[in-house]
Design brief:
Elements: H1 4-11, E1 22-23, H2 44-47, H3 50-53, E2 65-70, E3 75-82, E4 95-96, E5 106-107, E6 110-116, E7 122-130, H4 136-146, E8 166-177, E9 180-189, E10 195-205, E11 220-226, E12 231-236, E13 254-259, E14 264-268, H5 274-278, H6 292-299, E15 309-310, E16 312-321, E17 326-334, H7 345-363, H8 370-385
Antiparallel strand pairs: 1-2, 2-3, 3-10, 4-5, 6-7, 7-8, 8-9, 9-17, 10-16, 11-12, 11-15, 12-13, 13-17, 14-16
InterPro entries: Glycoside_hydrolase_63
GO molecular function, one term: Glc3Man9GlcNAc2 oligosaccharide glucosidase activity
Organism: Methylovulum psychrotolerans
Amino acid sequence: MTNSESVRIAENVGEQPPWWRWGPYLSERSWGTVREDYSPNGDAWRYLPHDLARSKAYRWGEDGLAGICDRYQLLVFALGLWNGRDPILKERAFGLDMWEGNHGEDVKDYYFYLDNTPTHSYMRYLYKYPQGEYPYQELIRENQRRAGSGAEFELLDTGIFKDNRYFDVEVEYAKVSPDDICIRISAHNRGPDAAPLHILPQLWFRNTWAWSEPRGPIPTIRLLKKAGVYTCLLADSSELPPLPGLLFPYQLGKRYLYADGDCTPLFTNNETHSQRVYGGHAANPSPYVKDAFHRHIINGEACVNPAQTGTKSCLHYRLDIPAGESVQLTLRLTPTAMQQPFADIGRVFSQRRAEADTFYEALHPPKATLEERRVQRQALAGLLWSKQVYS
């Protein structure tokens, strides 16, 4: 049976399949992985733990929540969150390892891959974010106390979700074309009281320039426009040479990120905060480093770039969401400069969701029940969301 998604699949051929140029190729965590382990003893978990992840620039693979990137991960979009109480800006999944009492490595966040299509023309992701202070130390202490004996101590066991005091943060993507992506972020307050939520859509370049001597060419992200209608960031890598090591030239050029609503653009660089990671008087290549948004928003430090340019950026939304209500943010990541970037976004989301429904209806076994169809669709979404870049 021919449908819109099967037509896109048929178009997805050649060295650079067009509909796979962008997708969910971003891990929820890259800290503690062997690819980012440069230690002399090969102890990846203790060389780059979660506590250093916000401050150390990765080389081979970025991480983030509900994120997307191009297929070689030069440019990344992902979500940052803060509930006004956490000691850490929530930018990536937190987890424990066997050294901390777990039976093995285990993420202690709750996120769900709800929907996805083979060409990533439509994607949906859910993250459950507590409204109270995230119990990092309690999870570590209690799992260490249990020392691998009996059940692991999970986030739900801490009582952090009592009285439904959490946000459902849902992120949807709908492609207009292979390179033009509409983004919708919805935050639902499931608790009994109004609660603050900071939402930080982030756009940044993977650090491809710091690993040679002299350092390689550096791309830029800058504020292009902040008007009453929208804010626009321009990510420009057009001056960079093609990515080395491939059999064909690969460049991104320019990408525009449009965002609606009242937000504050912030800028820093995707550079290691050397003093924090290595200690002493280690020199930073830039005064603006990877953990600047965490330090600026939570600690009030003047550590973001006032010139509004860098290799890492975010759009800071400060919200107060009444009990039982929700807010919705709309963005668009595209290679095209636009005067009205949000004019047809509602139609695009409706169309791509309907096309995903049609595609999966043709895929389900004819005698499958409604529940079985839901299970199959979400299982396939999990496989598709789990794609990752390996450089």
